[in-house]
Amino acid sequence: MSEVASDLNARREHERAKYLELAARPESIYGSTNHGRHAVPLVQRWKPRFIVDFGCGRNEFIRHLRRLGIDGLGVDFAFDDADVVKPMHATGLLDGVADVVTCFDALEHLLPEDVDPVLAEMRRVARPRGRFVLSICTRPSRITALGENLHPTVRPMAWWLDRIGRVGAVTERRAMGRYIVGRFSP
Prior knowledge:
It contains five helices and nine strands. It has helices at 3-24, 40-46, 60-67, 115-125, 157-165, and strands at residues 50-54, 71-76, 84-85, 98-104, 126-135, 144-145, 148-149, 168-174, 179-184. The strands form two sheets. It has a seven-stranded mixed beta sheet with strand order 3-2-1-4-5-9-8, sandwiched between helices. The chain is globular and about 40 Å long. By secondary structure, it is α/β, with parallel strands linked by helices.
């Protein structure tokens, strides 16, 4: 393994340690917020057969969809409540498995060099021209772990839209601009 890859893996493990520390706090409900709850009606209108939610935390969004009869999986690298406990850049899921890919307030938690690989993984997991719904926080986290901010990639929305544009086309912004909606490129 190269020194650069080794350093990146060490930094990824450090980021993961923050969430493991948060999850271990007795009073912690971190990761339990359903940041996608306002996107549910939109997703329902699309009538997807299968959804993959990246950075699902404790998997509240997918659990909500299952109660509505929509199947899916949540992916997260730190919470055992996820259906797939793996990093977002390497889910191990089959190509083209999802009609819709979602990711709510999780991309900013990535290291900057993992943003493009994660967006590529989302496109790979989606069916050709599959849909996406994303939300991204563009400011530092109010919550810290191990004495550090939880958002290593704080960038303006224009930066994020440029990155997203490399894997798909944004078709609209919803809920006062909170959700970024679009389709992946084939």
